[in-house]
Structure formats: structure tokens, C-alpha cells
Sequence to fold (81 residues):
Amino acid sequence: MFGIVGKIKTYIIGTLVFALPILYAFGRIKGKEAEKNKVLRDELDNQHKVSNFYKNMAEHEDDPSTNDRRNFSQRLRNKGL
Fold:
């Protein structure tokens, strides 16, 4: 009986010896892709923020409250950019 169990254990261990490096490589590849997607998503969010910033600046370009330094600093204190 122990001979059969021993052979089964040997086959399981042999299978794991060959399968674990392959599983590790696939995990590394998927991890790299996930990290790359995360970086790209962050860059896209930053681009949206920048474009919204410039869009808001363009809307207030003709605002008379920003003509001189005093009014501009007041507006920054009250409303931000």
C-alpha cells in the first residue's frame, strides 16, 4: 500500500516541480501587464486634469477681476485658480 502512495506522491511532486516555474512566469507576465495598465490609467487621469485646468483657465481668460495684481490675488484667495 505504501508503494502506491509513494508513487503518487512522487508524481505529484514531479508535476509541481515542472509546473511551478511555468506558473511563476505567467504570474510575472500578468503582474507586469496589470502594473502597466495602472500607470497608463494614472497618466490618462492626469491628462484629463490638465485639460480641465486649461479649459477652466480659458473660460476665465476675459474675467475683469484678474486684470491687476490685487484683484488677481483676491480671486485666488477666494476661488482658487
